[in-house]
Design goal:
This protein is α+β, with helices and mostly antiparallel strands. It contains 11 helices and 22 strands. The chain starts with a strand and ends with a helix. Bound molecules: flavin-adenine dinucleotide. Flavin-adenine dinucleotide binds next to helix 1, strand 3 and helix 11.
Protein backbone atom coordinates (compact mmCIF):
# COMPACT_ATOMS: atom_id res chain seq x y z
CA UNK A 1 0.00 0.00 0.00
CA UNK A 2 1.39 3.42 -0.89
CA UNK A 3 1.90 5.69 2.05
CA UNK A 4 -0.46 8.63 2.29
CA UNK A 5 1.25 11.97 2.27
CA UNK A 6 0.61 14.92 4.57
CA UNK A 7 2.01 18.41 4.23
CA UNK A 8 2.11 20.36 7.48
CA UNK A 9 2.46 24.12 7.17
CA UNK A 10 4.27 25.63 10.16
CA UNK A 11 6.50 23.98 12.75
CA UNK A 12 5.34 25.49 16.04
CA UNK A 13 3.99 23.30 18.85
CA UNK A 14 0.91 22.30 16.79
CA UNK A 15 3.02 21.29 13.77
CA UNK A 16 5.62 19.43 15.83
CA UNK A 17 3.12 17.27 17.71
CA UNK A 18 1.09 16.58 14.57
CA UNK A 19 4.23 15.58 12.65
CA UNK A 20 5.24 13.14 15.39
CA UNK A 21 1.82 11.53 15.52
CA UNK A 22 1.51 11.20 11.73
CA UNK A 23 4.99 9.80 11.10
CA UNK A 24 4.46 7.25 13.87
CA UNK A 25 1.27 6.15 12.07
CA UNK A 26 2.93 5.44 8.75
CA UNK A 27 2.33 8.69 6.84
CA UNK A 28 4.87 10.45 4.68
CA UNK A 29 5.24 13.81 6.38
CA UNK A 30 6.70 17.00 4.95
CA UNK A 31 6.78 20.19 6.98
CA UNK A 32 7.02 23.56 5.26
CA UNK A 33 8.29 26.24 7.64
CA UNK A 34 8.73 29.79 6.43
CA UNK A 35 11.21 30.73 9.14
CA UNK A 36 14.76 29.67 9.82
CA UNK A 37 16.09 26.49 11.36
CA UNK A 38 16.51 26.39 15.12
CA UNK A 39 20.25 27.01 15.08
CA UNK A 40 19.95 29.97 12.70
CA UNK A 41 17.17 31.70 14.62
CA UNK A 42 18.02 34.87 16.52
CA UNK A 43 15.95 37.14 18.76
CA UNK A 44 14.79 38.94 15.60
CA UNK A 45 13.06 35.73 14.54
CA UNK A 46 10.97 35.55 17.72
CA UNK A 47 7.72 34.66 16.00
CA UNK A 48 8.74 32.58 13.00
CA UNK A 49 11.01 29.58 12.55
CA UNK A 50 11.43 26.01 13.75
CA UNK A 51 9.68 25.75 17.13
CA UNK A 52 7.22 28.50 16.16
CA UNK A 53 6.51 31.40 18.48
CA UNK A 54 5.94 29.26 21.54
CA UNK A 55 9.03 27.17 21.59
CA UNK A 56 11.31 30.14 21.15
CA UNK A 57 9.82 31.71 24.29
CA UNK A 58 10.53 30.77 27.87
CA UNK A 59 8.17 27.84 27.87
CA UNK A 60 5.70 28.20 30.69
CA UNK A 61 3.64 25.10 30.17
CA UNK A 62 0.14 25.07 31.63
CA UNK A 63 -1.31 21.59 31.79
CA UNK A 64 -4.97 22.51 32.07
CA UNK A 65 -7.57 21.93 29.32
CA UNK A 66 -9.13 25.36 29.87
CA UNK A 67 -5.94 27.43 29.67
CA UNK A 68 -5.08 28.70 26.20
CA UNK A 69 -8.45 27.69 24.81
CA UNK A 70 -11.00 25.07 25.68
CA UNK A 71 -10.06 21.58 24.55
CA UNK A 72 -13.45 20.24 25.61
CA UNK A 73 -14.85 21.89 22.48
CA UNK A 74 -13.23 18.99 20.59
CA UNK A 75 -12.94 16.09 23.02
CA UNK A 76 -14.57 15.23 26.33
CA UNK A 77 -12.90 16.21 29.59
CA UNK A 78 -11.25 12.84 30.03
CA UNK A 79 -9.89 13.01 26.48
CA UNK A 80 -8.67 16.57 27.04
CA UNK A 81 -6.81 15.57 30.22
CA UNK A 82 -5.29 12.60 28.46
CA UNK A 83 -4.08 14.79 25.55
CA UNK A 84 -2.46 17.14 28.03
CA UNK A 85 -0.76 14.25 29.77
CA UNK A 86 0.59 13.07 26.40
CA UNK A 87 1.97 16.53 25.65
CA UNK A 88 3.56 16.55 29.09
CA UNK A 89 5.15 13.12 28.58
CA UNK A 90 6.47 14.04 25.14
CA UNK A 91 8.16 17.20 26.46
CA UNK A 92 9.57 15.09 29.28
CA UNK A 93 10.97 12.52 26.83
CA UNK A 94 12.71 15.31 24.94
CA UNK A 95 14.36 16.72 28.07
CA UNK A 96 11.89 18.72 30.16
CA UNK A 97 12.95 18.38 33.78
CA UNK A 98 10.80 17.01 36.55
CA UNK A 99 10.39 20.17 38.63
CA UNK A 100 6.91 21.64 38.83
CA UNK A 101 6.37 25.40 38.77
CA UNK A 102 3.91 25.20 41.61
CA UNK A 103 4.09 24.27 45.26
CA UNK A 104 2.05 21.61 46.96
CA UNK A 105 -1.70 21.30 46.44
CA UNK A 106 -2.48 22.60 49.92
CA UNK A 107 -0.83 25.96 49.16
CA UNK A 108 -2.65 26.13 45.84
CA UNK A 109 -5.99 25.46 47.55
CA UNK A 110 -5.25 28.09 50.22
CA UNK A 111 -4.44 30.68 47.57
CA UNK A 112 -7.65 29.76 45.75
CA UNK A 113 -9.66 30.22 48.97
CA UNK A 114 -7.96 33.49 49.92
CA UNK A 115 -8.58 34.84 46.42
CA UNK A 116 -12.23 33.83 46.53
CA UNK A 117 -12.68 35.84 49.73
CA UNK A 118 -11.58 38.92 47.73
CA UNK A 119 -13.87 38.14 44.81
CA UNK A 120 -11.04 36.83 42.63
CA UNK A 121 -10.89 33.45 40.92
CA UNK A 122 -7.46 31.83 41.17
CA UNK A 123 -7.10 29.03 38.61
CA UNK A 124 -5.06 26.15 40.00
CA UNK A 125 -2.85 24.65 37.31
CA UNK A 126 -0.22 21.97 36.98
CA UNK A 127 2.54 24.11 35.57
CA UNK A 128 6.15 23.84 34.41
CA UNK A 129 8.63 26.49 33.45
CA UNK A 130 11.36 25.42 31.06
CA UNK A 131 13.15 28.78 30.51
CA UNK A 132 14.18 30.40 27.22
CA UNK A 133 17.73 29.19 27.76
CA UNK A 134 16.71 25.49 27.99
CA UNK A 135 13.77 25.27 25.61
CA UNK A 136 15.92 25.35 22.47
CA UNK A 137 17.57 22.02 23.39
CA UNK A 138 14.21 20.37 23.93
CA UNK A 139 12.94 21.55 20.55
CA UNK A 140 16.20 20.43 18.96
CA UNK A 141 15.79 16.94 20.46
CA UNK A 142 12.19 16.91 19.19
CA UNK A 143 13.22 17.88 15.64
CA UNK A 144 16.16 15.47 15.53
CA UNK A 145 13.81 12.66 16.50
CA UNK A 146 11.29 13.69 13.81
CA UNK A 147 14.04 13.74 11.19
CA UNK A 148 15.34 10.35 12.36
CA UNK A 149 11.82 8.93 11.98
CA UNK A 150 11.62 10.28 8.43
CA UNK A 151 9.89 13.69 8.64
CA UNK A 152 11.18 16.06 5.99
CA UNK A 153 11.53 19.58 7.35
CA UNK A 154 11.92 22.31 4.73
CA UNK A 155 12.85 25.60 6.37
CA UNK A 156 12.67 29.02 4.68
CA UNK A 157 9.81 27.59 2.62
CA UNK A 158 6.80 29.85 2.76
CA UNK A 159 3.36 28.87 1.57
CA UNK A 160 2.02 31.80 -0.43
CA UNK A 161 -1.23 30.48 -1.84
CA UNK A 162 -3.44 27.41 -2.22
CA UNK A 163 -5.00 25.92 -5.33
CA UNK A 164 -8.42 24.27 -4.87
CA UNK A 165 -10.87 22.20 -6.93
CA UNK A 166 -13.64 19.60 -6.28
CA UNK A 167 -13.82 20.30 -2.54
CA UNK A 168 -10.13 19.45 -2.27
CA UNK A 169 -6.91 21.32 -1.86
CA UNK A 170 -4.96 20.50 -5.01
CA UNK A 171 -1.62 22.22 -4.52
CA UNK A 172 0.25 24.75 -2.44
CA UNK A 173 2.14 27.59 -4.02
CA UNK A 174 5.39 28.18 -2.14
CA UNK A 175 8.37 30.46 -2.62
CA UNK A 176 10.24 27.41 -3.91
CA UNK A 177 7.55 26.03 -6.24
CA UNK A 178 4.32 24.00 -6.27
CA UNK A 179 3.78 21.07 -3.91
CA UNK A 180 0.94 18.60 -3.56
CA UNK A 181 -0.19 16.00 -1.06
CA UNK A 182 -3.10 13.81 0.07
CA UNK A 183 -3.76 15.90 3.19
CA UNK A 184 -2.82 19.40 4.26
CA UNK A 185 -2.60 20.57 7.86
CA UNK A 186 -2.22 24.30 8.44
CA UNK A 187 -0.54 25.17 11.77
CA UNK A 188 0.55 28.69 10.88
CA UNK A 189 0.27 30.38 14.30
CA UNK A 190 -1.30 33.61 15.41
CA UNK A 191 1.20 35.84 13.65
CA UNK A 192 0.27 34.52 10.21
CA UNK A 193 -3.43 34.43 10.95
CA UNK A 194 -4.10 37.63 8.97
CA UNK A 195 -2.56 36.00 5.90
CA UNK A 196 -4.41 32.77 6.60
CA UNK A 197 -7.70 34.65 6.89
CA UNK A 198 -7.17 36.12 3.44
CA UNK A 199 -6.65 32.59 2.12
CA UNK A 200 -9.75 31.46 4.02
CA UNK A 201 -11.78 34.21 2.36
CA UNK A 202 -10.42 33.37 -1.05
CA UNK A 203 -11.27 29.68 -0.84
CA UNK A 204 -14.54 30.22 1.04
CA UNK A 205 -13.65 28.75 4.39
CA UNK A 206 -16.20 29.61 7.02
CA UNK A 207 -14.79 31.77 9.83
CA UNK A 208 -16.06 33.27 13.10
CA UNK A 209 -14.89 36.39 14.91
CA UNK A 210 -13.91 35.82 18.50
CA UNK A 211 -12.71 38.01 21.35
CA UNK A 212 -9.45 39.86 21.72
CA UNK A 213 -7.49 40.71 24.87
CA UNK A 214 -6.36 44.32 25.23
CA UNK A 215 -4.36 45.67 28.12
CA UNK A 216 -0.93 46.31 29.54
CA UNK A 217 2.10 44.63 31.06
CA UNK A 218 2.62 45.29 34.74
CA UNK A 219 6.09 45.28 36.30
CA UNK A 220 6.90 45.39 39.98
CA UNK A 221 9.51 44.14 42.41
CA UNK A 222 9.85 40.40 42.65
CA UNK A 223 9.74 40.74 46.45
CA UNK A 224 6.13 42.00 46.08
CA UNK A 225 4.86 39.07 44.01
CA UNK A 226 7.01 36.39 45.63
CA UNK A 227 4.30 35.26 48.06
CA UNK A 228 2.09 34.14 45.17
CA UNK A 229 4.66 33.28 42.47
CA UNK A 230 6.36 30.92 44.93
CA UNK A 231 3.04 29.06 45.14
CA UNK A 232 2.33 29.12 41.38
CA UNK A 233 5.00 30.32 38.96
CA UNK A 234 2.51 31.84 36.50
CA UNK A 235 -0.61 32.48 38.62
CA UNK A 236 -3.83 33.05 36.71
CA UNK A 237 -6.17 35.44 38.52
CA UNK A 238 -9.56 36.10 36.93
CA UNK A 239 -11.38 39.27 38.02
CA UNK A 240 -14.64 41.00 37.12
CA UNK A 241 -14.34 44.77 37.47
CA UNK A 242 -16.76 46.90 39.49
CA UNK A 243 -17.74 49.63 37.03
CA UNK A 244 -18.12 47.67 33.82
CA UNK A 245 -18.25 44.06 35.06
CA UNK A 246 -15.53 43.35 32.49
CA UNK A 247 -13.33 40.26 32.61
CA UNK A 248 -9.67 41.06 33.31
CA UNK A 249 -6.99 38.48 33.96
CA UNK A 250 -3.33 38.07 34.76
CA UNK A 251 -1.43 36.20 32.08
CA UNK A 252 2.17 35.22 31.31
CA UNK A 253 3.75 36.08 34.66
CA UNK A 254 7.53 36.16 34.66
CA UNK A 255 9.05 36.10 38.15
CA UNK A 256 12.56 37.64 38.05
CA UNK A 257 11.96 38.13 34.35
CA UNK A 258 12.27 40.78 31.67
CA UNK A 259 9.81 42.85 29.63
CA UNK A 260 10.45 42.68 25.88
CA UNK A 261 8.95 44.08 22.70
CA UNK A 262 7.62 42.05 19.80
CA UNK A 263 7.05 43.55 16.40
CA UNK A 264 3.80 42.69 14.65
CA UNK A 265 2.86 43.61 11.13
CA UNK A 266 0.91 46.65 12.34
CA UNK A 267 2.42 47.64 15.72
CA UNK A 268 5.06 47.03 18.38
CA UNK A 269 3.63 45.11 21.31
CA UNK A 270 5.04 44.33 24.75
CA UNK A 271 5.52 40.87 26.17
CA UNK A 272 7.69 39.26 28.83
CA UNK A 273 9.90 36.27 29.46
CA UNK A 274 12.07 34.76 32.16
CA UNK A 275 15.17 32.63 32.10
CA UNK A 276 16.24 29.80 34.34
CA UNK A 277 19.74 31.18 34.95
CA UNK A 278 19.70 34.95 34.27
CA UNK A 279 17.42 36.80 36.70
CA UNK A 280 16.18 40.35 37.21
CA UNK A 281 14.86 41.76 40.52
CA UNK A 282 11.40 42.34 38.99
CA UNK A 283 8.31 40.36 38.10
CA UNK A 284 6.14 41.21 35.10
CA UNK A 285 2.76 39.96 33.94
CA UNK A 286 0.16 40.83 31.34
CA UNK A 287 -3.10 42.33 32.65
CA UNK A 288 -5.66 41.92 29.92
CA UNK A 289 -9.28 42.94 29.41
CA UNK A 290 -11.41 40.68 27.22
CA UNK A 291 -13.16 42.57 24.44
CA UNK A 292 -15.86 41.10 22.25
CA UNK A 293 -17.74 43.20 19.73
CA UNK A 294 -21.19 42.43 18.40
CA UNK A 295 -22.93 44.84 16.06
CA UNK A 296 -22.42 46.60 13.74
CA UNK A 297 -18.75 45.55 13.89
CA UNK A 298 -17.64 42.12 15.10
CA UNK A 299 -14.07 42.48 13.88
CA UNK A 300 -12.15 42.63 17.17
CA UNK A 301 -8.83 42.08 15.39
CA UNK A 302 -9.09 45.31 13.40
CA UNK A 303 -10.21 47.15 16.54
CA UNK A 304 -7.19 45.85 18.48
CA UNK A 305 -4.86 46.70 15.58
CA UNK A 306 -6.17 50.27 15.58
CA UNK A 307 -5.44 50.57 19.31
CA UNK A 308 -1.97 49.10 18.78
CA UNK A 309 -1.25 51.56 15.99
CA UNK A 310 -2.50 54.52 18.06
CA UNK A 311 -0.32 53.42 20.97
CA UNK A 312 2.76 53.28 18.76
CA UNK A 313 1.89 56.61 17.14
CA UNK A 314 1.82 58.28 20.54
CA UNK A 315 4.98 56.51 21.64
CA UNK A 316 6.91 57.57 18.52
CA UNK A 317 7.04 53.94 17.34
CA UNK A 318 7.76 52.54 20.81
CA UNK A 319 5.53 51.20 23.61
CA UNK A 320 4.49 53.65 26.34
CA UNK A 321 5.69 53.30 29.93
CA UNK A 322 3.89 54.92 32.85
CA UNK A 323 4.04 54.75 36.65
CA UNK A 324 0.71 53.67 38.13
CA UNK A 325 0.79 56.75 40.39
CA UNK A 326 1.06 59.02 37.36
CA UNK A 327 -1.78 57.21 35.61
CA UNK A 328 -4.04 57.64 38.62
CA UNK A 329 -3.17 61.34 38.95
CA UNK A 330 -3.70 61.95 35.24
CA UNK A 331 -0.09 62.92 34.50
CA UNK A 332 2.33 61.56 31.98
CA UNK A 333 5.50 59.83 33.20
CA UNK A 334 8.90 61.16 32.21
CA UNK A 335 12.39 59.66 32.33
CA UNK A 336 13.17 61.92 35.34
CA UNK A 337 10.26 60.38 37.27
CA UNK A 338 11.12 56.86 36.13
CA UNK A 339 14.75 57.29 37.21
CA UNK A 340 13.58 58.13 40.76
CA UNK A 341 11.04 55.31 40.80
CA UNK A 342 11.38 52.42 43.24
CA UNK A 343 10.76 49.89 40.45
CA UNK A 344 13.22 50.23 37.57
CA UNK A 345 12.10 49.02 34.13
CA UNK A 346 13.74 45.96 32.58
CA UNK A 347 12.80 47.33 29.14
CA UNK A 348 14.19 50.75 28.23
CA UNK A 349 13.28 50.92 24.57
CA UNK A 350 10.03 52.68 25.50
CA UNK A 351 8.59 56.20 25.69
CA UNK A 352 7.43 57.43 29.11
CA UNK A 353 3.95 58.84 28.58
CA UNK A 354 0.29 58.61 29.46
CA UNK A 355 -1.54 55.36 28.85
CA UNK A 356 -4.95 57.03 29.21
CA UNK A 357 -4.33 58.76 25.85
CA UNK A 358 -4.06 55.51 23.98
CA UNK A 359 -6.29 52.95 25.68
CA UNK A 360 -10.07 53.46 25.84
CA UNK A 361 -11.34 54.85 29.18
CA UNK A 362 -13.18 51.61 29.83
CA UNK A 363 -9.99 49.56 29.60
CA UNK A 364 -8.00 52.00 31.76
CA UNK A 365 -10.78 51.88 34.39
CA UNK A 366 -10.71 48.07 34.29
CA UNK A 367 -6.93 48.06 34.80
CA UNK A 368 -7.05 50.51 37.74
CA UNK A 369 -9.93 48.65 39.41
CA UNK A 370 -8.38 45.27 38.68
CA UNK A 371 -5.12 46.29 40.37
CA UNK A 372 -7.05 47.55 43.40
CA UNK A 373 -8.64 44.12 43.77
CA UNK A 374 -5.40 42.26 43.09
CA UNK A 375 -3.69 44.26 45.84
CA UNK A 376 -5.67 42.25 48.39
CA UNK A 377 -3.90 39.10 47.23
CA UNK A 378 -0.59 40.71 46.20
CA UNK A 379 -0.12 43.60 48.66
CA UNK A 380 1.96 46.36 47.07
CA UNK A 381 0.87 45.73 43.48
CA UNK A 382 -1.35 48.82 43.61
CA UNK A 383 1.56 51.14 44.57
CA UNK A 384 2.36 54.35 42.75
CA UNK A 385 5.72 52.87 41.73
CA UNK A 386 4.22 49.93 39.82
CA UNK A 387 5.16 50.23 36.15
CA UNK A 388 2.70 49.85 33.28
CA UNK A 389 3.71 49.21 29.67
CA UNK A 390 1.24 49.48 26.80
CA UNK A 391 0.04 48.15 24.51
CA UNK A 392 -0.11 44.47 25.31
CA UNK A 393 -2.60 42.97 22.91
CA UNK A 394 -3.32 39.30 22.40
CA UNK A 395 -4.99 39.01 19.05
CA UNK A 396 -7.18 35.97 18.88
CA UNK A 397 -7.24 34.71 15.33
CA UNK A 398 -10.53 34.29 13.53
CA UNK A 399 -11.82 30.81 14.23
CA UNK A 400 -11.70 28.65 11.14
CA UNK A 401 -14.89 26.66 11.47
CA UNK A 402 -13.96 22.99 11.69
CA UNK A 403 -15.37 19.74 13.05
CA UNK A 404 -14.14 17.85 16.11
CA UNK A 405 -11.32 16.32 14.04
CA UNK A 406 -10.15 19.82 13.01
CA UNK A 407 -11.24 19.16 9.44
CA UNK A 408 -12.50 22.26 7.70
CA UNK A 409 -16.12 22.28 6.61
CA UNK A 410 -15.55 22.91 2.92
CA UNK A 411 -12.50 20.76 2.11
CA UNK A 412 -12.15 17.02 2.70
CA UNK A 413 -8.35 17.10 2.83
CA UNK A 414 -7.76 20.39 4.69
CA UNK A 415 -7.19 20.34 8.44
CA UNK A 416 -6.18 23.14 10.80
CA UNK A 417 -4.64 23.31 14.29
CA UNK A 418 -3.08 25.78 16.70
CA UNK A 419 -3.37 29.50 17.26
CA UNK A 420 -3.57 30.45 13.56
CA UNK A 421 -6.94 28.73 13.26
CA UNK A 422 -8.25 30.35 16.44
CA UNK A 423 -8.53 27.00 18.22
CA UNK A 424 -5.78 27.51 20.81
CA UNK A 425 -3.76 30.18 22.58
CA UNK A 426 -0.89 28.46 24.36
CA UNK A 427 1.87 25.94 23.77
CA UNK A 428 0.10 23.00 25.41
CA UNK A 429 -3.27 23.80 23.80
CA UNK A 430 -1.68 24.25 20.35
CA UNK A 431 0.21 20.97 20.74
CA UNK A 432 -3.01 19.21 21.79
CA UNK A 433 -4.94 20.50 18.79
CA UNK A 434 -2.05 19.32 16.58
CA UNK A 435 -2.59 15.83 18.01
CA UNK A 436 -6.36 16.03 17.46
CA UNK A 437 -5.90 17.08 13.82
CA UNK A 438 -3.31 14.36 13.21
CA UNK A 439 -5.72 11.76 14.60
CA UNK A 440 -8.48 13.16 12.40
CA UNK A 441 -6.26 12.50 9.39
CA UNK A 442 -5.22 9.06 10.66
CA UNK A 443 -8.91 8.10 10.98
CA UNK A 444 -9.40 8.76 7.28
CA UNK A 445 -6.43 6.70 6.15
C1 LIG B 1 7.20 36.06 23.17
C2 LIG B 1 6.17 34.99 23.38
C3 LIG B 1 6.16 34.28 24.55
C4 LIG B 1 5.20 33.27 24.76
N1 LIG B 1 5.28 32.54 25.90
C5 LIG B 1 4.42 31.51 26.08
C6 LIG B 1 4.54 30.67 27.22
O1 LIG B 1 5.41 30.84 28.06
N2 LIG B 1 3.63 29.66 27.36
C7 LIG B 1 2.65 29.41 26.45
O2 LIG B 1 1.87 28.47 26.64
N3 LIG B 1 2.52 30.21 25.35
C8 LIG B 1 3.39 31.23 25.14
N4 LIG B 1 3.27 32.02 24.03
C9 LIG B 1 2.17 31.71 23.08
C10 LIG B 1 2.58 30.51 22.23
O3 LIG B 1 3.75 30.91 21.61
C11 LIG B 1 1.55 30.11 21.20
O4 LIG B 1 0.32 29.88 21.80
C12 LIG B 1 1.99 28.82 20.44
O5 LIG B 1 3.30 28.96 19.93
C13 LIG B 1 1.07 28.52 19.28
O6 LIG B 1 1.57 27.43 18.57
P1 LIG B 1 1.23 27.21 17.02
O7 LIG B 1 1.91 25.95 16.62
O8 LIG B 1 -0.22 27.33 16.81
O9 LIG B 1 1.88 28.45 16.26
P2 LIG B 1 3.31 29.11 16.26
O10 LIG B 1 4.11 28.67 17.43
O11 LIG B 1 3.13 30.55 16.02
O12 LIG B 1 4.00 28.46 14.96
C14 LIG B 1 3.53 28.70 13.66
C15 LIG B 1 4.65 28.45 12.68
O13 LIG B 1 4.13 28.53 11.36
C16 LIG B 1 5.06 29.17 10.51
N5 LIG B 1 4.33 29.75 9.39
C17 LIG B 1 3.42 30.76 9.45
N6 LIG B 1 2.94 31.05 8.22
C18 LIG B 1 3.56 30.21 7.37
C19 LIG B 1 3.51 30.04 5.94
N7 LIG B 1 2.71 30.79 5.17
N8 LIG B 1 4.32 29.10 5.39
C20 LIG B 1 5.13 28.35 6.16
N9 LIG B 1 5.24 28.48 7.50
C21 LIG B 1 4.45 29.40 8.10
C22 LIG B 1 5.69 30.23 11.43
O14 LIG B 1 6.96 30.63 10.97
C23 LIG B 1 5.76 29.50 12.76
O15 LIG B 1 6.99 28.87 12.96
C24 LIG B 1 4.21 33.02 23.78
C25 LIG B 1 4.21 33.77 22.60
C26 LIG B 1 5.17 34.74 22.38
C27 LIG B 1 5.17 35.51 21.11
Amino acid sequence: MTQKKVIIVGLGPAGLFAAKELIEHGFTVTVLEKGKGLKERTKKDLLFGVGGAGLFSDGKLCFNPFIGGDLTEFVNLEGANSLIQEVHNTFKNYGMNNGYAHKNLEDLHNLRDESAKCGIRFVEIMQKHIGSDYLVNIVDNFCQDLIKKGVEIQTETEVLDVVVGNNQIKELVTNTGLVSSDYYLFCVGRYSSVWFNKIAQKIDLETQHRYTDIGVRIETLHSITKTVTDIQYDPKFHIYTNTYDDFIRTFCTNPEGFVVTETYEKFVNVNGHAMKDKKSTNTNFAFLVRVKLTEPIEDTTSYANLIGKLANFLGGGKPILQRLGDLKKGRRSTWQKIEKNLVQPTLNDVTPGDISLLLPHRIVTDIVEGLEKLDKIIPGINSDSTLIYAPEIKLCALRIVCNKDMKTKSFENLFVAGDGAGVSGSIVAAASTGLIAARGIIKRK
